[in-house]
């Protein structure tokens, strides 16, 4: 089974609808991230969480909200979807190393979201 | 803010040949990490290689190696003996200690038979 899973894998919705993207991980990592990928722009950070009680805005948080329900679950919500939120969304996880060396981020399979 | 630049939007290489993808970054930090990720058509983000800035030795992983030039803020990826399965988007990424990643715009690599 995959260590980082995302649901749904693909979603088509209409302008104004509320939508939630979910991420779950079995890696036991403390840190979780949501990124958005647009053609020609690479991945950009939306929100990140270093533990259940710690939520931080990323580079492009406007129009999005998140919830860290448990160490293993991190959800991204679009309260009122708009067409320019059409993109590929990735969840990533990272362990909190204590040795002074940062861990790599591990990505889920992505969710393709289309807002009509 | 850290920026990552990949100046080659698209590249192609013949099977079994060697290709080098370029990446430059801008930072005032001394302690950081650099990564190359591969994104095949399946769209999964797959770690190819990572480099710690405090290590002078260039990282290698089988057919993949990097040329890390800290003073020049350059981090190129060399793929030797290219295979058809190497066809993908390649993203260079920068990460400060315990912080978020910044990605380049990507280079689309096509390996031709």
Topology:
The complex is a heterodimer of chains A (116) and B (113).
Chain A: E1 4-7, E2 10-13, E3 19-25, E4 31-38, E5 42-51, E6 54-57, E7 65-70, E8 73-78, E9 87-94, E10 106-107, E11 111-115
Parallel strand pairs in A: 2-11
Antiparallel strand pairs in A: 1-3, 3-8, 4-5, 4-9, 5-6, 7-8, 9-10, 9-11
Chain B: E1 3-5, E2 10-14, E3 19-21, E4 24-26, E5 32-39, E6 46-52, E7 60-61, E8 64-69, E9 74-79, E10 88-96, E11 101-103, E12 107-112
Beta-strand proportion of chain A: over 45%
Low-confidence stretches of chain A: none
Evaluate the radius of gyration of chain B: 13 Å
Distance between the termini of chain A: 33 Å
Structural class of chain A: mainly beta
Which of globular, elongated, flat, extended, rod-shaped describes the shape of chain A? globular
Helix content of chain A: under 10%
Give Rg of chain A in angstroms. Answer: 14 Å
The helix content of chain B is: under 10%
Report the span from N to C terminus of chain B: 41 Å
Total number of helices of chain A = 0
Largest sheet of chain A: 7 strands, mixed
Proportion of β residues of chain B?
over 45%
The number of helical segments of chain B is: 0
Number of E-state strands of chain B: 12
The geometry of chain B reads as globular
What structural category arises from helix and sheet content of chain B?
mainly beta
For the secondary structure, the number of strands of chain A is 11
What is the H/E string of chain B? EEEEEEEEEEEE
Q: What is the residue-averaged pLDDT of chain A? A: 92
Query: What is the string of SSEs of chain A from the N terminus onward?
Result: EEEEEEEEEEE
């Amino acid at each position: 089974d995959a260590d980082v899973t995302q649901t749904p894998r693909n979603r088509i919705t209409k302008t104004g609808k509320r939508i939630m993207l979910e991420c779950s991980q079995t890696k036991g990592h403390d840190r979780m991230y949501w990124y958005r990928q647009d053609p020609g722009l690479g991945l950009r950070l939306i929100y990140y969480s270093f533990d259940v009680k710690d939520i931080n805005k990323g580079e492009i948080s406007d129009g999005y909200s998140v919830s860290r329900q448990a160490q293993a679950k991190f959800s991204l919500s679009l309260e009122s979807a708009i067409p320019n939120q059409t993109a590929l969304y990735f969840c990533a996880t990272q362990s909190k190393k204590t040795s002074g060396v940062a861990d790599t981020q591990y990505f889920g399979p992505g969710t393709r979201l289309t807002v009509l | 803010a850290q920026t990552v630049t990949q100046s080659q939007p698209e590249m192609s290489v013949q099977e079994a040949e060697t290709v080098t993808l370029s990446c430059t970054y801008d930072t005032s930090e001394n302690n950081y990490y650099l990564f190359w990720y591969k994104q095949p058509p399946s769209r999964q983000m797959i770690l190819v290689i990572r480099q710690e800035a405090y290590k002078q030795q260039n990282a290698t992983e089988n057919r993949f190696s990097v040329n890390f030039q800290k003073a020049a803020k350059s981090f190129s990826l060399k793929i030797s003996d290219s295979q058809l399965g190497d066809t993908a988007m390649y993203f260079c990424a920068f990460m400060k200690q315990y912080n978020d990643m910044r990605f380049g715009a990507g280079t689309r690599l096509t390996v031709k038979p």
